[in-house]
Amino acid sequence: METTGSRNWEQRFTRLLYYPGDDEETMLSKRVWIGLAFTAFALGAILLLICLVNRFHALTLLTAVFTVFFLVCILLFFRVKRQIQLFFYVSEIFKVLYSFGAVVITGGIIQSGGLVFVGMAGIFFALVFPEPEKVWFLLLLYLSTLATEVLLQPYLVPLVRFSSFQNLLFFVLTLTGAVLSLFFFIRTFIKERARFRKLETEKLRALDAAKSHFFTNISHEFRTPLTVILGMSDELREEPGRLIKRNSKKLLRLVDQLLDLSKLEAGTIPTQYAQVDVVMELKYLLESFHSMAEGKRIKLQFSSDPEALWMDIDPEKMENIIGNLIDNAIKYTPEGGEVRVHLKILPGERLLVRVEDTGIGIPLQYQEQVFSRFFRVGEWPVEGAGIGLAIVREYVKLLDGQIEMTSRQGEGTTFSLYFPIRQNAPRKTKAPLPEEQETGASLSQEGRDESQAQLLIIEDNTDVVHYLKNFLRGKYQLSVAHDGAEGITLALEEVPDIIISDIMMPKKDGVEVCQTLKNDIRTNHIPIILLTAKADTASRIAGLEAGADAYLAKPFNRQELEVELAKLLRIRELLREKYRQPVPPETNGPPPGLNERFLHDLRQCLERHYQEEEFGIKALHTLLDMSSTQLHRKLTALTGMPASHYMRSFRLEKARELLRTTRMTIADVAFAVGFRDPLYFSRAFSQQYGLSPSEDRG
User: Fold this and answer.
1) Higher pLDDT pick, 615 / 102
2) Do residues 669 and 521 share a domain?
3) Domain limits at 547?
4) How confident is the model at residue 592 (pLDDT cuts 50, 70, 90)?
5) What is the CATH number of the domain that holds 515?
6) Long-range contacts, stretch 123-131, CB < 8 angstroms, 24+ apart
């Protein structure tokens, strides 16, 4: 079992060897070579010491060169950290030449003390390098030196003579060096190969998880426009053309991106250049994003140094590139921000297209990955499949361009694109027609009809909002919030009768909205329908656990949504019947829920102050720490009575109790329960119970 110390040492050693761009195979080659080099240096140092002791002058000089050579190689490699194969080739050639020189000096192979084997190990170790076929020349070099040594054997005169013991000693040392080298190689090779398999398994798991995440997100991307398309098909007479056209194009673009992704991988996607006015093309393109920007109250700006610029470009791919960047910029820019597109001609006949936003920015740790396929930054609750920027980069390369990104978290992101200005393709004179613009008026609040239930829609997709409002207007009082945080604020201010909320939204998602409102005594009674593209069981359970009363998956059925709305409002009517009685029977123990606690606190407050003539609505909502609107909406939702009627009903119940248990006069009873006018008290009593106070007393 590896200790923490050994793991830390390995990590430091890996950092010492690493050069930017090294892959796992290169790192394995480096570890093998550095182990062989250290072994050769250690063996050379030991042989040098023995040669010095025994005064083998010629062999001492040769071994000193051998030892110094490997020391220099090791130090130089730690300095350079590159060209590992070159280092390996040079060191192995030197080993072979040293082996040949040592054999000649000692008088032949038999008398060489095993030094003939010094150059052999590296030939086998070269098989682990990225291009093992290039090591054949090492084998040929070593075999040729062996053949030469055999042919020269009868003519060699030894400059260094070993005794039998010295010959055995050198043989044992060289054999030990070879065995240690072999052991190191096998250990490193097996260990690294096992690590490679583990890494490959982890990569496969990560890829599988990325694909699952991708298909979850792409499902959301498909479901949102499909919701509008399918829903508007039932409303063909209610101006659906614009929405259907735009969402169909969005869906088609998503499908095209998926197909282009596979073509880019296969290298088969073509370019179709045409000479167009790029300034005019991008102006038209921005027109299609104005309604999306207006829906979030984002300022969309376009500027260009040249008034017109005709150049060769693939219009479809340019639209895809800039469209993806603008779409992302609007998505990740908070309400009230800015998105700017600027064109500029640079020296060297290059066009710069800059797309800037004042959005949330990209955290530094994710910036190197934003162009990776299927990658999304964290768990930001915004639509996206993680392929847009990957395709943007591939398209830019396909058009011989470059793309750069700068981003600061909380301040915004800038994408800079550089394209060569060429004018070789035929001119395209027909410019694309801009899409019909939408106005922001469709997102304003509807006029109030107090006889209708108030419905709050929390949804960041303007088309889905338009579709919902298209068939719900006239049946409900409608309010719209464009993100989760705004939805919570609006719900607390207005206390609507029912809420429809998306889940994937900026700032706060639908689950957070549900949890916040269901845990607030002012809004916990409001039925909430979660409406989302996350149709998997885990997401449904998470939504229901957060307190959602219903969970519908996009594309939803219009009739199903209407039935759910009616059903939840009917359940609320039953809740009113339960809580309508102002003075319920006494119960033991604390109130079981937030609604019961609210009514309990309300009744306790009335119990303490109902006898005071001046105690009214203003004092009541102040004591309960609610606004008058919140108190009115909450009490009406629970009991069907506004606060003023509930207070009067509470006082009349107390009066009825006094009439039946005491002999007080009717006027005294009226004053005792906070009525200033006994006549008004009598009329109110008769209206509530169908009997006059004297008749009720019997």
Assistant:
1) 102
2) no
3) 445-579
4) low
5) 3.40.50.2300
6) 123/92, 124/185, 125/32, 125/36, 125/181, 125/185, 126/88, 126/92, 128/28, 128/29, 128/32, 128/185, 128/189, 129/29, 129/84, 129/85, 129/88, 130/25, 130/26, 130/29, 130/85, 131/85
